[in-house]
């Protein structure tokens, strides 16, 4: 029997994943808190759902669980109430392949002990009064799940802040072969997400088989003794967008605005001791909002094809600049560059440096995935044309989800990147057209190849996350 939880690549056919559809909390983000809650703007929730995210869900169902959708598209589209997409509605698609976190949360809240513990923990991190515990504990599980996620009670009282980034399920944890590494978010705005997800992983029956394989990253034991300025440096934080399972034996960890070297060191120790992977490569990217995780600057399309931000791909220094830097006439650009160090199990004290991102990705394609050197190809954000590389990376041109090898979902708005895909031999198609073709039988998820599926993105792209971020794969077929 196929495992229920197993991910050993970024591009093997996707079989099961965790998602979270935009909830009502997202519609309550206010301008004064948008930045603190990690949104650059406020979004129009109804458009985000109907015109964008619902298409994403339908497409995922067509690839992963077609019986739930095939032949029903017209009926689903005609329902103005969107009942097919609401986890608490009898018409909900209720798939065990495209799995909604809100559904898992309401399942575990049926258990009194879990409900009591989680209410107490959520109230503690949100600094709520004792009376609120009772109020929440007495809610039915479905309503409680909605309240814990959206922050608002069924009567509309805004009890907690929303957790609008919960749609970016990539960041809550990472499947590494048949283990799950739990995240430790850097940002306060993502703390409640991490709590809800811990409870789901440790209590929901779908994770029974991997319960002993859940990995929590230990904190620096003396962190609470350090003064604040030192504690910041010593933090152990890691978010899923910085971790990529590129091959059965090889894991990448980004060192970024969100993931610290301390966390990476802990993960290396644990994964090597448990012999879960043989190679771990740390990829340090510039610490800035534009590139909060490594999956915002590169993702994989096929064994031999990657999409990435050209300005971070190779050292950019011109020879004459190097001379000026050495002479102290220009500041060093070192901090802006990418630094890559690779560790091997059994030789963890002899790391090797890799000169550039392109070199690393080429090595992965050749040595881990068996490609020929000349077959390795790069597609650049904005076709590497100034100023489109940076513009399109900002709206997630490099953040793609492979539903099978060579078939990726990405935002529709990154025109130059889409041109680059076409030049590389890919077809680009609007999600709505693809769904109609699937429904009419003109195309099928089994036979489709080398395609960029364009997800409408006017609202979704306002929070600095794309389809890679909006997915946590828990099962992919072996490559
Ligand atoms: N893996 C990812 O890159 N996730 C995107 C997270 C976006 C979210 N607004 C955040 O800043 O955390």
UniProtKB/TrEMBL annotation:
GO biological process, one term: L-arginine deiminase pathway
UniProt entry tagged with the keyword Chloroplast: no
E.C. designation(s): 3.5.3.6
Gene3D superfamilies linked to this entry: L-arginine/glycine Amidinotransferase, Chain A (3.75.10.10)
InterPro entries in alphabetical order: Arg_deiminase
Reactions accelerated catalytically: L-arginine + H2O = L-citrulline + NH4(+)
Keyword line: Hydrolase
Superkingdom field: Bacteria
UniProt pathway: Amino-acid degradation; L-arginine degradation via ADI pathway; carbamoyl phosphate from L-arginine: step 1/2
Molecular-function annotations in GO: arginine deiminase activity
Family (UniProt): Belongs to the arginine deiminase family.
Protein name: arginine deiminase
